[in-house]
Amino acid sequence: MKKLEIRVEPGQRPAPQALPDPLGFGRHFTSRMFTRHYSTGQGWHDAAIGPYKPLVIDPAAEVFHCGQMIFEGTKAYLRPDGNLNLFRPEMNAERFNRSAERMAMPVMDVGEHVQAITELVRLEHAWVPRAEGAALYIRPVMIATENTLEVRASRRFLHFIILSPVAPYFAGGFKPVSVFVSDDFVRTVRGGTGEAKTPGNYAGSLCGTEKAIAAGYQQVLWLDAVERRYVDEVGAMNIALVYDGKHIRTPALSGGILPGITRDSLLRLAPDLGYTVQQDRIDILEALRDVASGKITEAFGIGTGAVIAPVGRFGYRGTDYVVGSGEPGPVARNLFRSLTDIQYGRTADPYGWTRLVEVATAAKPAAAQA
Ligand SMILES: Cc1ncc(COP(=O)(O)O)c(C=O)c1O
Prior knowledge:
With 370 residues, the chain is α+β, with helices and mostly antiparallel strands. 23% of the residues lie in helices and 29% in strands. Pyridoxal-5'-phosphate (PLP) is lined by residues 73, 233, 236-238, 258, 260-263, 303-304.
């Protein structure tokens, strides 16, 4: 297999003795980043790992005008032996390529992308936080850098990867989130860009989210854009409903839903834990009726950030629907524990999902040495 040649420059700042406290999510960044360039004719070139620093980009660059930009999100997890695990990084790299195709951007070799992530993470391993549930968040990005105001695909691109040590999503244990069901704003539409991880989807969701927050909720449940009736996603997560404590139902991928890697993993893991799973179209009115009757015992968001984010209540057209007792339920807890045990290497990985990043014994993260 062809190996990507990556020039490694020295980092800007030494690895920290102690990470900032509180860490939060995506507020601190490690000392190095990966970059490489693309131009039509030349293809991908000039791969480097160098100091984390501001980018110098011309104000006419297409990313600022057409918005040709994609990104990804995955994590490196600290194992009990001090080495690190990546979780299904090839699947992120494949989704990055599908986003690229949808946004008329160049694809890249999946192996090279995963190699770039692996080498950067290995160099920056001392930034992996030690607290239980914390991780090193990995953010690959591609932007259009050709200077033109013409509305057409760019001929030049920059691919970069940055790393951020992040705190556990639920620092003091699972907390239920409140969810406002939006039937005026939509996130994306079938045939649109909802399956791509492109910033426009997220920018377009902010106004509806701000309104939900002003109304006393934390997240938005997005309905399909055509009929405003079928459940798509919650916030920037996929969603699952639990019936009678044992049957897990999630919306089928419709063209407007981001195909989550956590979603795919839970669909494969859940049957091995004794649950049945179903992917289909979920009518919001039917679902709320089942919440009210108690048939739906749990609901939760699913994604890399939180893994599982239990929903305590849904608000729809002036009525609140409390899910189960309003507290996180046993299915959420069981799935969370089972998946994170695999991610952090606390248990065997029968699915072949984790990729070991070995860190030299003498240079293991402080966490492993404590
Ligand atoms: C819109 C949206 N849906 C779902 C997800 C969950 O995907 P994953 O499990 O791959 O993190 C994400 C996060 O990437 C997202 O941004």
